[in-house]
Amino acid sequence: YEMTGNLFLFEFPNRSMAEQILQGEWRWKKCKLHLEWWNPTAGCIPNSLTVKTSWIRAMVVPLHLWSQKIFKEIGDLRGGWKATVEETDLKNHLKWARIEIVGDDRN
């Protein structure tokens, strides 16, 4: 399963097969793969790092509230609205709205 960035989650039928896979050295397109056990913080930004902006998804926004004004209000509640992605503005999909906010939304 694809996760964030360059991370993928592999699922194996049993633990012994997963352990066997982890012992080997694996490559894909001449790039060495680093395999490790999954943990709940995989793909997360470490607390020691700070970021200037980050993206959030506003899920299940009712169609009558689908507007730049509402997205700005949501962003302001999460640290400060910076931008809304163009595909959200154009209503290319309505599953979620992607909003860029100031900071990392860890508060």
Automatic annotation (TrEMBL):
Q: Tell me the ranges covered by the DUF4283 domain, including all copies.
A: 1-44
Q: Please give one Pfam family short name.
A: DUF4283
Q: Where is the signal peptide?
A: none
Name the domain of life.
Answer: Eukaryota
Give TM regions: none
InterPro entries according to UniProt: DUF4283
Instruction: List, alphabetically, the PANTHER family matched.
Output: DUF4283 DOMAIN PROTEIN, DUF4283 DOMAIN-CONTAINING PROTEIN
Entry protein name: DUF4283 domain-containing protein
Q: Which organism is it from?
A: Nicotiana attenuata
